Amino acid sequence: MTPPTTLVVDDEPMLRHLVRRILEPRVCNVVEVEDGESALRLIQRRADSIDVVLTDLAMPGIDGFDVVDVLARHLPELPVLCMSGHAAQLNAGRRLTVPFIHKPFTADALCEAVVPLIERSRAWRAAERARQQAAAAADLVAEAKALRAARAKPGGPR
């Protein structure tokens, strides 16, 4: 199994680097992007390889709230953790429906917030794979029954 991957979305390069230094040796691989648009483009290409999205709320252009809203509509199973150092943003009238961690955070607090989301993502992916395999197996059975029925008809395939 591949190691879990967290996509870190923040317009501050130093913070992205810090998060990488915290998470990579302890929890998961990290992919960094500088804004919401880059995050959504990357997720569009690589959704199956991203286990968790960690996004800042305050960014120019497509912000963390927008990322959360779009992912909730299109990839609701992909866990998102938001972060911000500006508590006023949370009271600005935009409702946050995902977990949140306040900056500055400790390394332990970040890991404790990310690990359960990785576990949830991995559990969902395993259940989805099992569902797809069961559906594929059911299709194989249906095909075999159809072939058997066709063979049973006069002039059917042998």
Main β-sheet description: 5 strands, parallel
Elements, N to C (H/E): EHEHEHEHEH
Terminus-to-terminus distance = 43 Å
Q: Quick one: CATH superfamily?
A: Response regulator
Q: Could you name the ranges where pLDDT drops below 50 across 5 or more consecutive residues?
A: none
Classify the fold: give the CATH topology. Answer: Rossmann fold
Rounded Rg: 21 Å
Structural class: alpha/beta
- The helix tally amounts to 5
**Average predicted local confidence, pLDDT:** 90
Task: Briefly characterize the structure.
Helices cover 54% and strands 15% of the residues. The protein has 158 residues and is of the alpha/beta class.
Your description of this structure?
This protein has 158 residues and is α/β, with parallel strands linked by helices. The chain has a single domain (5-131), classed as Rossmann fold. Helix content is 54%, strand content 15%. A five-stranded parallel sheet has the order 2-1-3-4-5, with helices on both faces. The longest helix has 46 residues, at 107-152. It is elongated, with a radius of gyration of 21 Å. The model has no long low-confidence stretch (mean pLDDT 90).
Topology (elements, then pairings):
Blueprint: E1 5-9, H1 13-26, E2 29-33, H2 36-46, E3 52-56, H3 64-74, E4 80-84, H4 87-90, E5 100-102, H5 107-152
Parallel strand pairs: 1-2, 1-3, 3-4, 4-5
Helix pairs in contact: 2-3
Please describe the structure with a list of short key phrases separated by commas or semicolons.
Rossmann fold; single chain; 5 helices; alpha/beta; 5-stranded parallel β-sheet; 158 residues
